[in-house]
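CORE FACILITY INTAKE
Project code: CF-77B
Contact: R.S. (postdoc)
Sample description: multi-component assembly, four entities in total
Requested service: structural model of the whole complex
Turnaround: standard
Below are the sequence entries exactly as provided by the requester. Do not edit them.
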Amino acid sequence: MAKLVMTEDETMLADSARGFLDSEAPVKALRDLRDAGKTHDAALWNKMADMGWAGVLVPESAGGSDMGSAAANVLAHEMGKTLVVSPFLSTAVIAATALRQVSDARTEAALAKIATGDVTYALAVDEGTKFDPNAVQMTAKSDGNGFRLSGKKQFVVDGGLADRLLVLARTDNGLSLFDIPADRAGVTRDASNMIDDRDAARITFEDVEATGDDLLGTVDQAMDVLRPALQAGQAALAAEMSGLTAGAFGMTVGYLKERKQFGMEIGRFQALQHRAAHLWCEIEVTASAILHAGRMLDHDPENAALAVSLAKARATATAQLAVQEGVQMHGGIGMTDAFDMGFYMKRARVGAEWLGDYSYHAEQVAALRGF
Amino acid sequence: MAKLVMTEDETMLADSARGFLDSEAPVKALRDLRDAGKTHDAALWNKMADMGWAGVLVPESAGGSDMGSAAANVLAHEMGKTLVVSPFLSTAVIAATALRQVSDARTEAALAKIATGDVTYALAVDEGTKFDPNAVQMTAKSDGNGFRLSGKKQFVVDGGLADRLLVLARTDNGLSLFDIPADRAGVTRDASNMIDDRDAARITFEDVEATGDDLLGTVDQAMDVLRPALQAGQAALAAEMSGLTAGAFGMTVGYLKERKQFGMEIGRFQALQHRAAHLWCEIEVTASAILHAGRMLDHDPENAALAVSLAKARATATAQLAVQEGVQMHGGIGMTDAFDMGFYMKRARVGAEWLGDYSYHAEQVAALRGF
Amino acid sequence: MSGNQTVEAFRAELRGWLEDNCPQEMRDGGMSEDAICWGGTQWTFSSSAQKDWLERAAAKGYTVPTWPVEYGGAGLNREEEKVFHEEMARINARSPLQSFGIWMLGPALLHFGTHEQKLHYLPPIARGEIRWCQGYSEPGAGSDLASVQTKGADQGDHWLVNGQKIWTSYADKADWIFALIRTDTDAPKHKGISFLLIDMNDAGVETRPIKMISGISPFCETFFSDVKVPKHQIVGEENRGWDVAKYLLTHEREMISGGGAGLSGGGRELGAILAESAGEDGLTDATLRADAMRCEIDALAIGLTLERYKDQSEAGQGAGDASAMLKYMGTELNKQRHELLMNAGGSDALEWDGPLGNRAGDWLRTKANSIEGGTSEVMLSIVSRRVLGLPG
Amino acid sequence: MSGNQTVEAFRAELRGWLEDNCPQEMRDGGMSEDAICWGGTQWTFSSSAQKDWLERAAAKGYTVPTWPVEYGGAGLNREEEKVFHEEMARINARSPLQSFGIWMLGPALLHFGTHEQKLHYLPPIARGEIRWCQGYSEPGAGSDLASVQTKGADQGDHWLVNGQKIWTSYADKADWIFALIRTDTDAPKHKGISFLLIDMNDAGVETRPIKMISGISPFCETFFSDVKVPKHQIVGEENRGWDVAKYLLTHEREMISGGGAGLSGGGRELGAILAESAGEDGLTDATLRADAMRCEIDALAIGLTLERYKDQSEAGQGAGDASAMLKYMGTELNKQRHELLMNAGGSDALEWDGPLGNRAGDWLRTKANSIEGGTSEVMLSIVSRRVLGLPG
């Protein structure tokens, strides 16, 4: 197994990403987007694609850089630090991983378009309030050589901006995954007014036609394609959350050193010191789980389930603690919209739910550990 | 409903109990008993009986003082402070409450003997590792006019010293409660070497004869008699645990004020201050739940289930926190047998399990609150 | 008639009155921001039912049931007050009026005010005519509330007030403000503050709303530039305003802690809300279930503690610094409860005005609970020093 | 041959050796107090298998697999060491020998000792012939480890040592002690301490066991009265013993934290132990299940963190003060895990030597984890100051 230490390449990637994002996508970019009533910045995404990020998991044969999950996680972590808004997870991580599970001319072409930033994707799985692929009720009824899709999806992250949708639906003997354009007849998208100001939608499918070509992978065997895509997405989301945790924690420690109360820096108060130190310890431990998940996905993907759930569970718990402590330690100012901490808290909350909450991944861990 | 405030009578009872126990049963009494290899001090129990404590729940007609559950809780709380060893809960609270549910000459006589300290009781319910009366498998098979009891009980607190046993067993159509002498043929008692140095036993019943007279209450309807007894016992145990919590907390705060490290009292360290303050807050909140349980048992016993489970759950959680913080804040000395803190920790652990652990009572609360 | 009979007679009478007077639309148990009637000159009733309900309740003194009748209340004693809340809850009645005047200024005036002040200020509060806000905090002061910089210069018959307040709740919608003003700049920090009542319509008073992370602006910055405040508009003695502030802080802490107490309406809903999120077999998610049970246990026990302290205080046993405890425990619990509700709500809770209404906004709002009215850290330090007697 | 091939060749060879040499009775994964072989002159083997296993392992250097061959080790590199632990775990082999000599003194000597000292002291440790104990703490010193009062008076060729140590683990069963002794009483606290090696058989050394709350006496008080310690029995320089102590403290913290890491044998058992306590439907108790899942997640992640720091340190990226973090997280987790195991065990866990063996004793033992080797509070303060750079 590769070592649990950042490689030189990874460190360079992180540094260059940070440099780019600090100038192109600081938290203020999210604020400006929100104030403009928008949820997507196409120009930013094009620049990211130009830097090769959209193709981070696309094979070189399709024009990608194929750097692997650990590298994707490095990018996600850096994006998390300044709450970057982009379809990176949905498109470059989840959709690209799903598509590369199937080798044919169509997926090769789709991957090429992902790498160039010419197509965006969203994953439509959830139907209830909680992530649970096995509970999907949406139907894809056989109809001649094709299918007819009917049902409702919610919490489709990037579902408003995406050009194409990966849709999980129930076929005769199992689940199947479809890759269809978002503007196909019968598809209705209602933008969700998300607390983290990012793009998401509730989507209704009314008797939507899908051909055999729209099927990604084998009928009734969606999980062959979806499982690796979900795992890559969950790990990258964990990395993004660890980035936002780092961002919130950095602000908090800075504030502890600078803010004075009762005549001294509040960072001199031992109770706050110990809480900040505890939080740092949690952050360090979570960092290991995320690094490990990337290594497992790249080197032993068949056995990565435990590592991925570990990473997502830890990242979720640590992010909640970081933003809660962040707001409390900042006091009133942390509660104002003019200050950035609230953005971190809201993003952490959405990240906690997406692709499985703490409880979901804890149950995965329990099952894999035999209790 | 009576007020949630200690009455003058209750305050006086507490004061007089404290005065007696400080001289007759400080923690050292437990230590001496343990060092002597004993689990019971009959002389102490006789003195308590002389003070009327054994009859605190015995009707006046049977020679008791009939002071009610809140008063019993006051006594239990004071006993908890110095980890008093006595059959108070098993005999004066649980058995007395069970016996007074049935009005006849036999129970009247038994109650009179409890009040004078001439008989001790133990309650034999548990068969597995967790408290669960409904899971009882021990059988009491009809045999002519009587029954034959077969099965095993464990964690019978005071089961080694008790003169008589209240035994829960399964009859043809439900559960029944038997009141039999502990030395009846077929009863084998194996002392449990308890971590809190108190009396407890594993008891085997091999074809033990019981007559109709040995039945307490109606056949198949044990819960009519047992439920009030359990509730009184659970509330008094919660009170005892709140007493031990107070004892451990008092030691800890005293130590914080006196112990110096790095040139100052450790009680000046804000991190410890906040933890001690948090613990005090928890203790105060738990005190309300215990007072409330006593009031409900005395004034509205039919509806006391929620109050009792609330008290036992809170008392359990608070006691664990108090002893854990107590040991940690005392440092190495708190880990030595020569110091008393370990006795508190061990008693808290046993109290946590007896008559239903946190989880058991939390589930009762959830059921009563509709989720 | 025994005390118990009197109380039961009151219950019967009240039940009849509620039946006749509480409009059906006001019987939905509404607790959300929208459902609240705040009153004041800028107030617009959301329905005629809301207006009727306020007027009928105010006529009986039921907007401030425990205040003396001469000041607009119903003069209920403690037992009757309990019955009042029980009967209101029984029919799920909304509170006819809520306001800082009722919660904060009223108690302060009842304790420190002159008879004239009470007669002048209290009835308009009880009738919902005048809305008050609170001016304590100042920019940068944070937990150090007594570091008041806003100055009142003595001009004989009035003070000339200059300075700035922050976190003034709904100052933009209020008619009057009660504020801590430094009237002696030479005295020690706590000794030169006065508790003044200021008309928001006076020249020189300006407000600017602060947008919060929940997207709304319940707080404002409030600026005073050469505002003239007549000398009779002081509560308590000159330079002794900190006494009034402390009294109100204690009161406020108890009030804020009550929000998490579980015996109030909001608390009683927890089980029901969770049941909604649960499947047919109940709440089977182990993590959520464990958290919910702990929250429910703690909420009930904190509720009982509020009850116990009220009983103690009635029995003449002061609760003392216990209000710091209640504030700490109540607000921390309330935050946990709302985390739990967000968790239970899943993705439905992640939208503004989504299927679960304002659940996210309510959640974010609770984060201020452990900051406003004294932070949790300040509360713990108070307990540590004053209750436990730890050095420092 | 590539590195990987070398490693796999080593694995095959080791597997064969273990098959031939590890007695069946030593393949029960025994981790309890009874199962440990501590060695030393007072040692009595519990079985001939235990003796055989120690002797065979020592002959191959497998009691201290990473130590150089000339000092009694097997000279394994990091990769091989991992393979070694994997193969040992595969057959559930007990550790052939554990000792403070291996954990503590060995690393100190390897880092600070002279070649002669290494040759003299290390091989008897590796063979389990000499058992060591540690003499750091003194009565009343608590977390302030550098407040060493035990004095070593310079007598030319030796120091004359007088004073008292506490918390000396198994001093009554040890042959030698490594101790911090104040050899310069005028220097600042950290600058006058030397790290001395003392023969417990010397005249003037006495020990008295301390009974702990778990009923056993793993610690002693150790008294020194006019004990002569030759000058060559010092590790590192005179008055620079604090450097050695700090090095070992860091090492000790990592070691103690490892106990809670979940990737070690004890951790791997958690799921199995819980499964035992569970019914047919698995662990359905919501509270216990939620706690168990959190514990398992944290244990695995802390284990990965140990791994990560080892990898970092191999890659030349120092872990620095991270050992304080590992110590804090590992020991706090271990305490929680044992609370959980007590909870899962129910009343069976409440008896000394009951159906669950020494579960209660093990539980009580863990309470010392967050005290010994630097309390959790000291660890947090280290992180706060050295890692986060907070003032104070």
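Facility notes:
- Residues 259-268 of chain D have pLDDT under 50 and may be disordered.
- Residues 132-239 of chain D form a domain with the Butyryl-CoA Dehydrogenase, subunit A; domain 2 fold (CATH 2.40.110.10).
Invoice: internal transfer
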